[in-house]
Amino acid sequence: MRSRSATGMFSRAKRYLPLALAGVLAAGAELSTDAVADVFRLRPSIFVEQIFVDNIRSSSEDRDADGITSLTARLDANVTTDRIQAIARIEGFYNEVWAANDLDGANGRGDAGARVKLFQDNLYVDATARRQQVFLEPTGGGGAEFLTGQNQQQETDFSVSPTLQMDLFGLADLIVRASYAQVLFDEPVVGPALVPLDDVTAKGLSGRISTGKRASMYEAIVAANYLETDSDFQQRTIIGGLLLHLTDQFTAIGRIGYERIGLPAKQVAREL
């Protein structure tokens, strides 16, 4: 796993890329005119939610009734051209707990996604990014976070996936996709197995070839996938399938597959 001290200024700035990209798209939408209304679109929203609960701290011994007023401000923007489809959303949340003020919280999130066509419909790149930021962290333990459905951890996620799809001599459709993704936590968080999770980098390559609907009686599909992370996790899968359309209402499906998973060395040692 990489050292945090070696990330440098670029790595720190990269964590705020989703908010910056969402802001650029929103600014572009706001500056749009009627002539380009089909290119830039902007939609602001405000939501107010009132929650009442009889056990605000989720305690089995000391049950306290309380109320939560939740405010959400949202800004959606999208850009659509012949080559680019992009969407962005910026959200800000504030939760005011009536009596248990140590559970008050404020956080925000920026999401952005885009598809850029490089060559007609055959070659394109998909990209996504997200930033979660906590501005006011609740200091008291309780169920406010669960009740509002908001994640209070700070992290940045992004992925890039170039994709090639093409017709193979009129016989089959081919799709090949490569992917690179990172999940960057400001601080390690507890995972499902109560193990601290640090930053994760994942790389993948997948392919799928299918006869599609060229033949009315059958469809043949072969799909393969490879995934690896910087923690030495690896997964290889290949699946072949055959669909026989015997009647309009009845289809027989045959499938065969292979999967191999390589666990990180630290996890193998812990299990032993």
How do the helices and strands line up, and which of them pair or pack?
Elements: H1 8-14, H2 17-30, E1 40-53, E2 66-80, E3 84-97, E4 105-119, E5 123-136, H3 144-148, E6 155-168, E7 172-185, E8 189-190, E9 196-197, E10 200-210, E11 218-229, E12 234-245, E13 251-262, H4 265-271
Antiparallel strand pairs: 1-2, 2-3, 3-4, 4-5, 5-6, 6-7, 7-10, 8-9, 10-11, 11-12, 12-13
Mean pLDDT: 85
Oligomeric nature of the chains? single chain
Helix content: 10-25%
Give the radius of gyration. 24 Å
Q: Give a count of the beta strands, DSSP E runs of length 2 or more.
A: 13
Q: Which runs of at least 5 residues are low in confidence (pLDDT < 50)?
A: 1-9
Spatial strand arrangement across the major sheet: 1-2-3-4-5-6-7-10-11-12-13
Overall geometry: elongated
- Largest pleated sheet: 11 strands, antiparallel
Distance between the ends: 22 Å
What is the beta-strand fraction? over 45%
Structural class: mainly beta
Characterization of this structure:
This protein has 272 residues and is mainly beta. Helix content is 12%, strand content 56%. The protein has four helices and 13 strands. The protein has helices at 8-14, 17-30, 144-148, 265-271, and strands at residues 40-53, 66-80, 84-97, 105-119, 123-136, 155-168, 172-185, 189-190, 196-197, 200-210, 218-229, 234-245, 251-262. The strands form two sheets. An eleven-stranded antiparallel sheet has the order 1-2-3-4-5-6-7-10-11-12-13. Strands 8-9 form a two-stranded antiparallel sheet. Strand 11 (218-229) and strand 12 form a beta hairpin. The longest helix is centred in the N-terminal third of the chain and has 14 residues, at 17-30. The protein is elongated. It starts with 7 loop residues before the first helix and ends with a helix. Mean pLDDT is 85; it is low at 1-9.
